[in-house]
What we know:
mainly alpha, 93% helix, rod-shaped, Golgi membrane protein 1, transmembrane, membrane, signal-anchor
Amino acid sequence: MLPTHHKKRNMVLDSMRLGGGRCPPLVVSILLLACFLLIFNWWSLSTENIELINQLDQLQDQLKITVEERDKFLTLKDSFEQQLKNSESEVGVLHVRLQKQNELKKHDDELTEDLAMCKSNLDSLTKLDVTKTATLEAQRLEKDGLITELDTKREETLKLISELNKTKTDMELLKQTCNKNNVKELEKNNVEKDTSNLADLGELEEVEKYAPENMKKNKVVVNIEAEPSPKSITRQSTNPDRVA
């Protein structure tokens, strides 16, 4: 026995055969319309599919570009973050440098004030030096004058000393001359006295014998009396101006 669906197919074939092998126009038109709709749907779907594929490709390209740009942006972000960190560190270094510069500026101001004070002190010292130089020059001139005057006084003193020595020499010569004259006179007087005294006694020969001894004694006495005292000589030597 045949299955039921084979039976149904055979019945359809038999009915078509009974119609002379021609399909009804309505069925044909329906089939054509269905085919047209199917073709149109396929074309529209294929067109949409192509557009979707193109859009998908574009989206993929855009996605790739976006991913690349994102990677670039991430890289830039990292670089910017690193630059930010470096900038912060540089800002810290610059802040420290600024503080040092401020300190150096304060120190420079202090040094400028000290320099101005040193300049004023230098000007004062220069003025004092000029005054001191003028004073020293005046004192030097005064010293030269005093030295000249001292040399003059020394020359005068040497002259006075030489004159004093000459005067002493003359006085010594005069004293010696006076002493000699006194000795001669005393000897003469003593001889005359002794001769007169001994003549009366008749002892002229003995008088002549002892006369030289008496003359020597008298000469010694006269020399002792005529010799000047050391004190007078000392006073004369210590006071040359008075003697002169």
